[in-house]
Design goal:
This protein is α/β, with parallel strands linked by helices and 408 residues long. It contains 10 helices and 23 strands. It has 3 domains: 2-56, OB fold (Dihydrolipoamide Acetyltransferase, E2P), CATH 2.40.50; 86-107 and 247-407, Vaccinia Virus protein VP39 (Rossmann fold); 114-228, Beta Barrel (OB fold (Dihydrolipoamide Acetyltransferase, E2P)).
Length: 408
């Protein structure tokens, strides 16, 4: 739309939810990537910045502006915080809910333990990285200020492995997770299969590396130890590709907030439990029902629970809470419910909870928009929204985690 405004000189009015600078024109808003409030820009086919805001900072990564992983390295810390908190407030205001959030909790750089990279092979050239901002072009990564250093150090090997596995002209996805005991790596492509002898070659290549398990096109080609993660004080085996919070520090903050809100209760339900991020901390003092649709996660949770002493009883069930939420009758036995749904939220389960008499509900969400929608349902059902705490788990991105506490 910017090229329709021709060569007008404009002032940036505010930041949008995705970090773009917004200009109000007679033809509607114009969104300018990497523009900051108060700056003057010339709008043309290629927008040009004419003045710089005092809140403009030098990005810390050579890829910023091309790589789509980060959108906010150019913002001052104060502007960055205000931008995220405003986006959170607007998401709830859209549902008619006025909030005064707790101070945003932040995590350190170089702390993200999980990354989904795009990979593409063209002859001998292999590109591994994140998509270019606004395009489907991959940016080949040489560094990343948010990822765990062990992942960054292993990028050349990951690139080589993808090049060996992928056929010429093919693309795919590479998932890498920093586990407690090394790296868990999976290379995916919907159609490709490994050539004869390739499994052995890939296994030999990672024998002396930090990689503990390598899965290629669904086949485990190497492992010397099962990757594990620590949830509370419990070591849990990590099945390939299952959900895991991206930053251990953020996970610990969430768990602390959940435990503070729940307090001392005899029974609690952990819905959308995954591997047991909140199940195991809760089970230190309460009997817990853990429910998730991923059978692999529930199996790993059950195995870890059996091998852990000092916990209250844990019951784990495989159930799709989107299609079959816990009913009002099933919820009656719990003094607290914790739910950590995917980005789509927990619409059906929130509707059941709104009809229940559960005293305390703690919602953990990675999407303020769906969290606000589900909060509206709970409030209309008689719950009071007590606190909302934003957690900046995905530093420099437009994403924001939150923990919301409701009381009946």
């Amino acid at each position: 739309m910017a090229d329709e405004v021709k060569d007008d000189i404009v002032r940036i009015a505010r930041l949008g939810a995705q970090g773009d600078g917004i200009v109000e024109t007679s033809k509607g808003p114009v969104y300018l990537p990497f523009a900051l409030p108060g700056e003057q820009w010339r709008l043309g086919k290629v927008p040009e910045r004419l003045t710089a805001s005092d809140d403009r900072h030098q990005p810390i990564c050579q890829h910023f502006g091309k790589c789509g992983g980060c959108v906010a390295q150019h913002m001052s810390p104060d502007l960055y915080r205000r931008w995220k908190e405003k986006a959170l407030g607007e998401a709830f205001a859209h549902r008619g809910i006025e909030i005064t959030p707790q101070p945003m909790r932040s995590v350190a750089l170089h702390s993200r333990r999980r990354a989904f990279f795009g990979v593409a092979r063209r002859g001998d050239e292999v590109v591994l990285g994140f998509r270019q901002e606004g395009r489907h072009v991959l940016v080949d990564l040489a560094e990343c200020p948010v990822l765990d250093p062990l992942i960054v150090e292993t990028l050349p090997l990951l690139r080589w492995l993808a090049g060996m596995a992928l056929p010429d002209g093919a693309g795919g996805r590479l998932l890498v997770t920093r586990a407690q005991n090394g790296l868990d790596v999976a290379i995916e492509n919907g159609a490709a299969t490994l050539k004869p002898g390739m499994s052995e070659a890939l296994a030999r290549a990672v024998t002396q590396s930090p990689i503990r398990r390598l899965t290629v096109f669904g086949e485990v080609v190497f492992f010397d130890q099962l990757p594990t993660v620590l949830l509370g004080d419990v070591s849990v085996e990590l099945p390939p590709g299952v959900f895991l919070q991206a930053v251990p520090e953020a996970e610990a903050i969430m768990a602390d907030l959940v435990l503070q809100a729940v307090g001392k209760v005899k029974s609690a339900a952990d819905l959308f439990s995954g591997l047991g991020t909140f199940t195991f901390p809760l089970a230190c003092t309460a009997r817990v029902l853990a429910v998730d649709s991923d059978r692999r996660s529930i199996t790993a949770l059950e195995k870890a629970a059996r091998g852990s002493a000092g916990l209250k009883p844990i019951t784990a069930r495989v159930r799709d809470l989107m299609r079959e939420p816990l009913s009002r009758l099933e919820l009656e036995e719990f003094s607290a419910v914790v739910l950590d749904p995917p980005r789509a939220g927990a619409k059906a389960q929130a509707e059941m909870l709104a009809k229940s008499r559960v005293p305390t509900i703690v919602m953990v969400s990675c999407n303020p928009a769906t969290a606000a929608r589900d909060a509206r349902t709970l409030i209309d059902g008689g719950y009071k929204l007590e606190t909302v705490t934003p957690i900046d788990q995905f530093v420099y991105s437009a994403h924001l985690e939150l923990v919301a506490v409701f009381r009946r």
